[in-house]
């Protein structure tokens, strides 16, 4: 019987070392992905965050609140801004990307539209700090603001009509 970790007869020591390195890198990558925080991608393109389009919203104040929450989250929440993400008619748009653990549980990014009120920011922060997609349930009010991503919207319009039964 071969000892654990011992090289099989005839195999080069380099092959064993390379295999071991690949295994270690894969484990590290899995660990890093699992530790990835829930990420809020806040659109700040032509319409989202625009006082001209939505004069009643304190766009800068909302972004500051999100950033402050991320700073206090101990690495569980991250904020990033983005250029126009596409569905400008649903501004202000925020994409909630699942944490590494949420993704491992099968969650996908959730697109949230019309994030204009302080209540909307409260709901978004409550959900994201509780873990976000795959980890916690959003408030029913926030769920009403979920919108399809542009790819999902395109797929829906391309779906073939069901055939009538003969
Ligand atoms: S500016 Fe936000 S979706 Fe276009």
How is this structure best described in words?
There is one protein chain. This protein has 166 residues and is an alpha+beta fold. It has a single domain (37-154), classed as Glutaredoxin. The chain is built from 6 helices and 5 strands; from the N terminus they run H-E-H-E-E-H-E-H-H-E-H. A 5-stranded mixed sheet has the order 2-1-3-4-5, with helices on one face. Strand 1 (38-43), helix 2 (59-71) and strand 2 (77-82) form a beta-alpha-beta unit. Helix 2 (59-71) packs parallel to helix 4 (118-129). The radius of gyration is 22 Å and the shape is globular. The N and C termini lie far apart (66 Å). It binds FE2/S2 (inorganic) cluster. FE2/S2 (inorganic) cluster binds next to loops.
Secondary-structure blueprint of this entry?
Blueprint (H helix, E strand, L loop, with lengths): L12 H22 L3 E6 L15 H13 L5 E6 L11 E4 L2 H5 L5 E3 L5 H12 L10 H4 L2 E2 L2 H9 L8
Parallel strand pairs: 1-2
Antiparallel strand pairs: 1-3, 3-4, 4-5
Helix pairs in contact: 2-4
This protein binds FE2/S2 (inorganic) cluster.
The site of FE2/S2 (inorganic) cluster (FES) has 12 residues, from loops.
Write down the CATH class.
Answer: Alpha Beta
Average pLDDT score: 87
How are strands sequenced across the largest beta sheet?
Answer: 2-1-3-4-5
Main sheet makeup: 5 strands, mixed
CATH topology: Glutaredoxin
Radius of gyration: 22 Å
Which architecture does the CATH hierarchy give at level 2? 3-Layer(aba) Sandwich
Residue share in helix: 25-40%
Give the distinct bound molecules: FE2/S2 (inorganic) cluster
Shape annotation: globular
Which range does the strand content fall in?
5-15%
Structural class: alpha+beta
Total strands: the figure is 5
| Topology as a string of helices (H) and strands (E) | HEHEEHEHHEH
**Tally of helical runs:** 6
Number of domains: 1
What is the CATH homologous superfamily assignment?
Glutaredoxin
Flag low-confidence runs.
Answer: 1-5
Measured between the Cα atoms of the first and last residue, the distance is 66 Å
